[in-house]
Each structure stands twice: as C-alpha cells, then as structure tokens.
Amino acid sequence: MGWMKDETGLEHCAANFVALTPLSHLRRAAHLFPEREALVYHGFRKTYAEYHARVSRLASALAGLGIEPGDVVATLLPNIPAHCEAHFGVPAAGAVLNAINTRLEADTIAYILDHGEARLVLCDPQFLPTLMQATELMERPAPGIIEVADDQAGVHGHGHYMEYEELLATGNPDFEWIMPQDEWESLALNYTSGTTGRPKGVVYHHRGAYLMTMGTVVSWDMRRYPRYLTIVPLFHCNNWNHVWMMPMLGGTTVCCRDITAKAIYDAIADEGVTHFGAAPIVLNTIVNAKGEDRRAFDHIVDVFTAGAPPPAATLAAIEPLGFQVTQVYGLTETYGHVTECLWQEGWNALDDEARYAIKARTGILMPMMEDITAMDPETMAQTPMDGQAQGEIMIRGNSVMKGYLKNPKATQEAFAGGYFHSGDIAVQHPDGYLQIADRAKDIIISGGENISSVEVEGVLMRHPAVLLCAVVARPDEKWGEVPCAFVELKDGASADEPDLIAFARERLAGFKTPKSVVFQELPKTSTGKIQKFELRQIARGL
User: What family is reported (predicted)?
Assistant: First the structure.
C-alpha cells in the first residue's frame, strides 16, 4: 500500500469532480462553435449560439410555468427542432424528459401520463386529438399542454393552447441552467414498447447518457463536424442519445419528420449528411427506392443499424450505394446501442457472402460498457463460446438504466446476479462476438429443436421477390410448433407459397423450412420493428 494509506486532503471537491451530464456538451459548444450550424430543418437553421439561447429560453419558460426540479415534462413530437431543444431545455430546468411514442393509442398514452406524473406535454398538432382522448382517460389531473406547430411541414397550430414559440418568448436567454448536483439524478423517462401487459418506465441518469455519447464517438470513429440525420425517433432511447452527442463534436443535427427514401436521399445530397442510425427496415427502403427518389452523392455515409439483425442480403445491396453499415445492439434499458460489430482487418480478404454474414453479427461491448456476454440466466454461468450454444445476453456497465419506475420487483428481476438480463438469446463465437439467435419469446421450438426465426428470415430475404419477411411459430399438433412466414413482396415482383418454401428448403434443414407462407403487409412499430406478437395471433388462427 505504501503512502496510499494516507489520503488526507485528497477528497474530491468542486475543482476536480463535476457530475457528468450531456448538458455540458451544449454549454461548451455555445462557447466553442457559436457560429457553426447546429440545427437544420428545411428553412429553419440555427447556430450553436442560437440553439443554446433557445434552450435557455425553454428552460426559463418551464420554470416560469412552475416546473420544478424532478418534475416530468412529456413530449408527443416527431423529429423536429423543438424536440431536440426539449432534450436539453427540459433537463436544464432540472426536470425529467419523457418523450412518448407518437404511434401509441390514447389508452396507453393515458397510462404513461398517469404513471410518469407528467406536469406538462409539448404536443404536435397532428397528435393533439389522440392526446385529448388520453387526458379524458387519465386518473390523475391532466397535464398542461403546449402546442408545437410545424409550419415547415404545413402542420399549423389549432390555436387552443399556448404555442411553443410563444412559450420561448416568455423565457430568458441568459437563464442559469440547473445542472445536476449528482450524476445519478434522473435525466429521462422512456417507456418500453410493452408487448405483454403495460409498458415499463425506464429511468435514465445523467452519467449513463454522458458516457453513451462519449462511447459512441469512439465506436462510430467520428471526427469533428459530422452532419447527422435524425431517423431514429427522439422518443426511442432518446434517439440513441445522438442528439445529446452532436454538440460535443460541433456537429449539425438535420431533422427529418417523415422517414421516406426521398427525404433521406435529399438530406444526403442537399445537406451533406454523413451519419444516421436506422432500423434494417429503413435500409431496405433505401435499397428499394424508386429511381426518381434517388440522388447522387460523392461521400460515404456512416450508418448504425439496430432493432433486428440486418439480413446479409440487405447489407450486400446497400453498401455499393455509398453506405457503410455497422450493426449495433441494445435496448431501451441500455440507452440504445451498447454492442457493435467492430470490423477486424483480417476479414477484408473474405468473399462477399462470408463478409456480410459476419456483418450481421451483434458484436462486442462498446467502450463505456464493462461486460456483455451470453450466460445461463438461472446459474449465471458463461455460455460456451463455440458459435452453437445459446445463452441470454447479459449486460453490465455505466449505460444501464437506474431501473423501472415504481416497479422494484421488475427492477430486481432484471438485475439479478449483478447483470441486466436482456431477454435476448444469442450464441457467442470463439472471438467473443455475440450473434442474436432471437428474442427469448421468438424462438420456435419444433419437435424439441430450437429454430431461430432470424436465421429463416435471413434466407427468405435472399429471394429476389421478397421485400420484407417475418417468421413466427404456428401451433402444430405433431411438432408442437412449426415456422410460418409472413412476406411482403417488392413492387411488381411475384412469388407464391411453393416458390418460397422450395427456395428455403434448398438452403435450410427440413425442420427449419417454413410450412406456410402468408402474403400481407407486416405490422410495424414506430421504429420499424415488425410486431411479431400480432403475426403470432394470425398464425394461431391458420
């Protein structure tokens, strides 16, 4: 031990210990990059000096409305500048941001407003009718409402409530931000997309978000002044924390309200977008864009994809178009992505098929995390790293939630054994790289054999006529369950059930081949995840 036994006078103090918070990034950017473009949305263009002033006005105006530290302020907004401003302005007032999924129905929104005890909601005119229904269903007193008009998109205010710009006008651009005294203070409240029962309220702390922004810069190999397109909804893990990260790099956040191939190509060509995050379904949209929606561009666009393992066929189709795609993985409970498929130079020599198969791996832990591995959830024993044995993905590190709001039992269960239990089933390769086999609830067990729906989907996606597919369990008297495929075909393409079953049969073991194929539009969540629980209900009725 030596002299380390005597640490008298070496306590932390105001000079050497400051609570970590993503708010610091914007404070610094206002001084460092005051004239750089910070926030862009069609004709709306703000520098960092202006962005900081608007955020300060918002924080001040919220305080003026009686919002106190620890209060919850909710949003029902698309990816527009006001939503980015709220990500800084709500916590700068000391409050907790609850960005609500705009695709939810009134009943669930009412539950979230009751459970989170929101004092105020910032709402886009498009979602006001649903919010009105929700407030009528609430048990608690309804929150105040601020209407956020989106004149850029022709979505004008109804005039029933105070409008966002009027609210900002009441605020002081020199307002002193209320910074966290403790980095464990709550920053945001996000509700999981509960497929069973009510959604759970996931609580984020300032520390986790700050470290997420730092780790992402390293993993995404980012340089200063990126131009970033908001495709991931700001209500989805707070846009994977990317909007909080941009000021650190002096980057430009380009807002995108409606996620279409045309909007994405236009943003890349006209705004010079260099980075975005998106679910594989968005990559598919880009690959299959109509000729008139495509634009030429002369730089590589870096993409993080998550939400489901990207089919190798999608990766093979998008990369030649000028996109460099890295698969990442995480959950609402982990602030977004916490693993990355970090590319190894030795893989460059592999043929295309082998390379894209590796790119479809879930990967390894990002720098702000401590350990992410596959374990037996009962014994917490490490799963053999042989690429075959299946275990549950277990996660430890600084970007893990505080827990579930008002639900200590679920929090304890999720953290049993000192790891966050993801509910995702994976194999682990000898090099430690994880590869998701399935959500625990999506595994198909046929005659005692486990079938990964992801594997079957990957094969069907290679068929030239298939645009999208999802594979779920269909009850079967003999085998217990058999795979049933739901398929959307590309415009103008044709294929029938025998075609696709034969195509899969050539590439898969017999027991893994779908026994039935249903052609229909697939139900999707707001982030483009296919809602398998709905498809399972249809499959049960077949």
Answer: Belongs to the ATP-dependent AMP-binding enzyme family.
